[in-house]
Amino acid sequence: MNVVPVLRVRELSCTLGGREVLHGVSLALEPGCFLAVLGPNGAGKTTLLRVLAGLLTPQRGELEVSGYRLCDLPRRKIATLLGYVPQSLGSELPFSVRTFLALARYPYLGAFSELPRQDRALVDEMLERCGLLALSERRVDSLSGGERQRVSVAAALVQHTPIILLDEPTAYLDPRHEAEVLTLLRRANRELGKTLVMVTHDLNAAVLHAQRALILAEGRVRYDGPVAGVMDEALLLEVYGHNALFVEHPHSGQRLLVPEGP
User: Fold this and answer.
1) Domain assignment of residue 121, yes or no
2) Where does the pLDDT of residue 111 fall: very low under 50, low under 70, confident under 90, or very high at 90 and above?
């Protein structure tokens, strides 16, 4: 039985500032996949994510989400299909955590509508699931970076879309908060069936949490397959231009990348 992709990209090309940033990128994602988008700086990772979110318009190619052509959809409809988690939330967010999560229900409400009881229940559920109940009345802009990222992921879950796009969600986080956010994403994928597309520079986080990887280099796809396949000496030398050094995870045996010594 063939599974219909929840996200399909065909020969996507995008030009920014007169430079072609993406060159003929194609991709098809099955429902419930956790995809890590990898590659060096300037590879086109964030541009691809912004095109998938409908924030940038490609010059060529086709993009379908849940069977709809993205270019045919109004913003409100897109917001019921795609959630977007940026690298960081803005510095001026004078809302409580609970109010910020409630705002994520806007695609489903009419103008000036009061939040229905089932929507309030969803907010409560995600506050608990994401470990934010104790912070629910705090202003978002008073929180630490790790707490804000959990709020951002929780808002995407409240938005209740089948697909969530994440742009380096653990950037600038310390190891503890990075682990918290990645665990939250893994649970959203495995327990809630969310399809996740995560841009990251962290190859180890990708192989430990994602199922599939897409590697971009100079705007072109260099690898698309099982995430464990990225831990390949020849591939990493081709993409990143330096030799790789590996160790095995002490529990899973998964190959991980470590920095070379002096």
Assistant:
1) yes
2) low
